[in-house]
Specification:
The chain is α/β, with parallel strands linked by helices and about 300 residues long. Helix content is about 45%, strand content about 15%. The protein is globular. The chain binds (3R)-3-hydroxy-L-norvaline. Belongs to the NAD(P)-dependent epimerase/dehydratase family.
């Protein structure tokens, strides 16, 4: 049985569905600080900064795994850094303590945001310098080290993935730097145009959500003896700048127009991150193999968003 925190977030909302398909509805418990209208799955409101409540929820449902997704993303965290530390680190240490006390398998995402300006930008290695210049990045590096500590010191089976920007059509992201790569598809369908807050020629790693979710299950089911790394694995499938999304969209919406109104805060965050990271450790240690490239992702995104607007 798996407890998911942040179950109403961009990853969490789709992960719940994927896990229920994979393991059965009764084996997935979603939690979030907000309440859920979706009464088809087991759901509990829970504030991850309340460690006692989180532990009680895990005990009540007799879970054997916790997937901790509750966190503030990069741009939001940069706006309220002290709150971000409290939630991102306070929530993580509480979730790790629950995993230690109840002997649970543990997953939490890291991010390409864990890298900083001195990190090699092309083919960023799995093991390299990590001196991020954002609160979010500090949280992710500290989080990776804390998860490794709980593995080496307490034997908690912690595993993590450094996610690129994730693109999906089901739940809008909130407060991220890579959110432009989701907004662009919605605006293309609604208005045939998009004004990007990230400048041209600004490359970041991206991934379609189905590949991101498959990776979590693959990693959590991997043979632990084959894992050289744990927290956290580089994975990526697409390295793109805004104009690459524009070009891919114009294959389906020829009149699509892309313009720019750069947001200096999020542009500065984006420029501190790699352009393209190396996924070879994930491929070698647990068989990571993404399915979608920018063209197949674009085709699916536009089709699903059109369906969403036509049916509503
Ligand atoms: C963000 N989508 O923009 C998240 C992610 C790699 C980016 O961490 O903050």
């Amino acid at each position: 049985k798996i407890l998911v925190t942040g179950a109403l977030g961009q990853i969490g909302s789709e992960l719940i569905t994927t896990l229920r398909d994979q393991y059965g509805d009764d084996n997935v418990i979603g939690t979030d600080i907000r309440s859920s209208e979706d009464d088809t799955c087991i759901f509990e409101t829970c504030d991850v900064t309340d460690g006692k409540a989180l532990c009680e929820t895990a005990k009540k449902h007799n879970v054997d795994t916790i997937m901790h997704l509750a966190a503030l993303l990069s741009a939001k965290a940069e706006a309220i850094p002290q709150k971000a530390w409290e939630l991102n680190m306070g929530g993580l240490v509480n979730a790790l303590e629950v995993a230690r006390e109840l002997d649970l398998q543990f997953f939490t995402p890291s991010s390409i945001g864990a890298f900083g300006p001195q990190t090699p930008k092309q083919d960023t290695p799995q093991d390299t310098i990590m001196r991020p210049t954002t609160m979010y990045g500090v949280n992710k590096v500290a989080g990776e080290l804390l998860c490794d500590y709980y593995y080496h010191r307490f034997g908690v089976d912690t595993r993590g993935i450094r996610y690129p920007g994730l693109i999906s059509y089901k739940t809008l992201p909130g407060g991220g730097t890579t959110d432009y790569a989701v907004e662009i598809y919605y605006e293309a369908v609604k208005n045939n145009r998009y004004t990007s807050y990230i400048g041209a020629n600004t490359y970041m790693d991206m991934m379609y959500m189905p590949d991101a979710l498959k990776a979590i299950i693959q990693l959590m089911e991997a043979d632990p003896d084959k894992l050289v790394h744990r927290n956290a694995f580089n994975i990526s499938s697409i390295s793109a700048a805004p104009e690459d999304f524009g070009e891919a969209i114009r294959k389906y919406i020829p009149e699509f127009n892309l313009s720019y109104d750069v947001d200096p805060v999020r542009q500065k965050i984006a420029e501190s991150w790699p352009d393209s990271i190396d996924s070879s450790a994930a491929k070698e240690e647990w068989g990571f193999e993404p399915e979608y490239d920018i063209d197949s992702m674009t085709s699916d995104m536009l089709e699903k968003i059109k369906e969403k607007y036509v049916s509503n």
